[in-house]
Write a structure and sequence with these properties.
It comes from Desmospora activa DSM 45169. It is a single chain. With 287 residues, the protein is α/β, with parallel strands linked by helices. The chain has 2 domains: 91 residues, Leucine Dehydrogenase, chain A, domain 1 (Rossmann fold, 3-Layer(aba) Sandwich), CATH 3.40.50; 124 residues, NAD(P)-binding Rossmann-like Domain (Rossmann fold, 3-Layer(aba) Sandwich), CATH 3.40.50. Helices cover 42% and strands 15% of the residues. It is built from 10 helices and 11 strands. The strands form 3 sheets. The chain has a 6-stranded parallel β-sheet. Helix 6 crosses helix 10. The radius of gyration is 19 Å and the shape is globular. The N and C termini lie far apart (53 Å). The structure holds NADPH dihydro-nicotinamide-adenine-dinucleotide phosphate and 5,10-Methenyltetrahydrofolate. The site of 5,10-Methenyltetrahydrofolate (GUE) has 18 residues, from helix 2, strand 4 and helix 10. 5,10-Methenyltetrahydrofolate binds next to helix 2, strand 4 and helix 10.
């Protein structure tokens, strides 16, 4: 029987992954290495504060040491780069995450490039991005990695399928396209200059929406029986957290769909911990 409107439970899957990581962390601690993550937050953005709190809470649950470094909105680029350099040298820190977006006076590209690539658990450093592009071992960016895990755990085959990705950012759209292609899907990338968006999205067996526009994907954008992954984090007119997909309209048409909240977001955080534990494992194997 063909499944209908099945919800992919990212929240539940993320909890399972955290449990697996807790065991790995305990083993590492017995070997004398406690995985450590530094989260750097510049400024007062309230959404960023919420996400950062989620990351610290997940670290505590898994037994990963965490350090929250909160810097004022008017921090200079130089001061931030100096702080990153300290974290690069700090042996108790295996992962460094600088929360984006950054205030206008700071170049995100220079900041990302300053992180030791071996501690770049976001997978944003050009070296990690290049490793992914060329098929070398890399820290996979957390959101794309989380999406692939969700598809696999839901038993969704990718080989030969047509995946359509809407959005081409360095942190979501581009890397998720590469990962889907690596799994032998045929990938189409759409963006703000795409003409007749729905003519592409309607062909998708797997549709990934990563734009940041409330309800931009409606019933007219999907093929019956498709799998829909909603990355967007938006506010509805009533102020509720909502994705890019009109969930109520789209769900009855598709085979699987991720909810917001409770879908891609929790998996992103689980994969951040996964990369941090991996980084600590690498250090443990060297000592
Ligand atoms: N759940 C999670 O864990 C995460 C959620 N997010 C959320 O995902 C969303 C996307 O994030 P991110 O990739 O960083 O965003 P960006 O703003 O960097 O990229 C948005 C992309 O959407 C494209 N786009 C904009 N308007 C349209 C349109 N009308 N039609 C088609 N494409 C369009 C842009 O095209 P162009 O390149 O031409 O400008 C761009 O490629 C946001 O809501 C963000 O909050 C992000 C990271 C993690
Ligand atoms: N260096 C960096 N790395 C990131 O990975 C990064 C970033 N900067 N900047 C912002 C985006 C966004 N992002 C989210 C992660 C988790 C949820 C998440 O857990 N969402 C919950 C709801 C949270 C809530 O209640 O507000 C959910 O969807 O269920 C959302 C968004 C990571 N990002």
């Amino acid at each position: 029987m063909v499944s209908r409107g099945e919800i992919i439970d990212g929240k539940g899957m993320a909890a399972e992954i955290r449990l697996e990581l807790k065991e790995k962390t305990e083993t590492l601690v017995q070997q004398g290495v406690r995985p450590g993550l530094a989260v750097v937050l510049v400024g007062e953005d309230s959404a960023s504060q919420t996400y950062v709190r989620g990351k610290i809470k997940a670290c505590n649950e898994v037994g990963v040491y965490s350090e929250l470094i909160q810097l004022p909105e008017d921090t200079s680029e130089k001061a931030l780069l100096a702080r990153i350099d300290q974290l690069n040298q700090d042996q108790s820190i295996h992962g460094i995450l600088v929360q984006l977006p950054l205030p206008a006076q700071i170049s995100p590209d220079r900041v990302i490039a300053a992180i030791d690539p071996e501690k770049d658990v976001d997978g944003f450093h050009p070296i990690q991005a290049g490793r992914l592009l060329t098929g070398l071992d890399a820290y996979l960016p957390c959101t794309p990695h989380g999406i692939l895990r969700m598809l696999k755990r839901s038993g969704i085959a990718l080989e030969g399928k047509h995946a359509v990705v809407v959005g081409r950012s360095n942190i979501v759209g581009k890397p998720v396209s590469l990962l889907l292609q690596r799994e032998n899907a045929t990938v189409t990338m759409c963006h703000s200059r795409t003409r007749e968006l729905s003519s592409y999205t309607r062909q998708a067996d797997i549709l990934v929406a990563a734009v940041g526009r409330y309800h931009m994907i409606g019933a007219e954008h999907v093929k019956e029986g498709a799998v829909v992954i909603d990355v967007g984090m938006n506010r509805s007119p009533e102020g509720k957290l909502a994705g890019d997909v009109d969930f109520e309209a789209v769900r009855p048409l598709v085979s699987h769909i991720t909810p917001v909240p409770g879908g891609v977001g929790p998996m992103t955080i689980a994969m951040l911990l996964y990369n941090t534990v991996q980084s600590a494992q690498r250090v443990a194997s060297l000592t």
